[in-house]
From TrEMBL:
Protein name as catalogued: ABC transporter ATP-binding protein
Keyword set, alphabetical order: ATP-binding, Nucleotide-binding, Transport
InterPro entries: AAA+_ATPase, ABC_transporter-like_ATP-bd, P-loop_NTPase
Domain ABC transporter, residue spans: 10-240
Organism: Streptomyces hainanensis
PROSITE patterns: ABC_TRANSPORTER_2
Recorded GO MF terms: ATP binding; ATP hydrolysis activity
Protein family per UniProt: Belongs to the ABC transporter superfamily.
């Protein structure tokens, strides 16, 4: 169980998956609660492998995974009844319409015929497919195909959906639409979402929580807000003076004397890596004592992409 925000939705303990030539997951231990969680990692980081193990579609070599309280190794059927899955690659039969396909997937998930048709109409409308839903999918754009894949993951009214690279192949506008749809899956229906991407920045707006994996190992797991807050920095720009012809250098030395490390950046800027309020006062006092002019002092939040790059070995 997670502390605070309710029951754990996905939980893994020392999860390892070895293929003959590569270790795709390497002792992965993590705990994911309700809401939208972004699973970020470069190509080959192990995201798809993790999803298949969670769904009970592939066995782990070692360790355990639990989804909605069920053991992935032993209770795959129970998990798949309550979990929707949007696979990464194109898997749609070209001669079939979106409506026929999603009804079929609903029936496969155990819905009776009438319920399957009704749910299909609702989910296709939700993902933004209207008249086109009666046409064969072979003629669909990538964006429309991604929407059908999303609809079939939602048709049986799951409690959780696992979306593997849903923005793959989309242009920036299509990507924004898809991310908006994903966010609404949670806000409109209360369904929890695990969404993967190798594009680090895009999950920042969509997710409540971010998990970063690399080489099958956990790099970070934290709320999106704390991800950026904890890594905020303070940018300070000062003028030069007669006494201090290089104002930035003088301030840097003065701050070092007060135990605060500042790094020079282009354009007379000093950057202090901190989220600590007290550092504001230290900087302001040092600037005043040196008799420099304070041009600006602003807190800059790092973008997740930068944080991730810094975490790379
Ligand atoms: N069935 C398999 N047999 C052998 N190796 C595999 C198999 N599936 C995945 N791998 C390897 O395991 C590693 C992790 O692959 P995985 O597909 O889980 O990564 P990913 O993060 O989803 O990346 P991508 O987005 O490129 O699919 C890769 O090195 C991949 O080549």
């Amino acid at each position: 169980m997670t502390s605070g925000v309710g029951a754990s939705v996905i939980n893994t303990t020392a999860l390892t998956k070895r293929y003959p030539r590569v270790t795709a997951l390497d002792g992965l231990t993590m705990d994911i609660g309700p809401g939208v969680t972004g699973l970020v990692g470069a190509n080959g980081a192990g995201k798809s492998t993790l999803i298949k193990i969670l769904l009970g579609l592939a066995p782990a070599t070692e360790g355990t995974a639990r989804v909605l309280g069920h053991d992935s190794a032993a209770e795959g059927t129970a998990i798949r009844e309550q979990v929707g899955y949007m696979p990464e690659h194109d898997c749609l039969p070209p001669d079939v319409s979106a409506t026929e396909f999603v009804v079929h997937m609903g029936r496969m998930s155990g819905l009776p015929p009438t319920a399957a048709r009704e749910r299909t109409a609702d989910t296709l409308r939700h993902v933004g497919l209207y008249e086109e839903r009666y046409r064969p999918m072979g003629g669909y754009s990538t964006g429309m195909k991604q929407r059908v894949k999303l609809a079939q993951a939602l048709v049986h009214d799951p409690r959780l959906v696992l979306l593997d690279e849903p923005t793959n192949g989309l242009d920036p506008a299509g990507r924004d639409d898809m991310l908006g749809l994903i966010r609404r899956i949670h806000t409109d229906f209360g369904i929890s979402v695990l969404v993967t991407s190798h594009l680090l920045g895009e999950l920042e707006r969509t997710s409540d929580h971010i998990v970063v994996i690399d080489g099958g190992r956990l790099l970070r797991s934290q709320t999106t807000a704390s991800f950026t807050e904890a890594t905020a920095s303070l940018a300070v720009e000062v003028t030069d003076s007669d006494t201090h012809p290089d104002g930035a250098a003088a301030l840097r030395a003065a701050l070092a004397g007060r135990g605060v490390e500042a790094t020079p950046a282009p354009g007379q800027l000093l950057v202090v890596e901190t989220a600590d309020e007290a550092v504001y006062d230290t900087v302001r006092d040092a600037v005043a004592e040196l008799g420099l002019g304070l041009v600006r002092m602003e807190q800059r939040r790092h973008r997740i992409a930068e944080v991730f790059q810094e975490a790379q070995p």
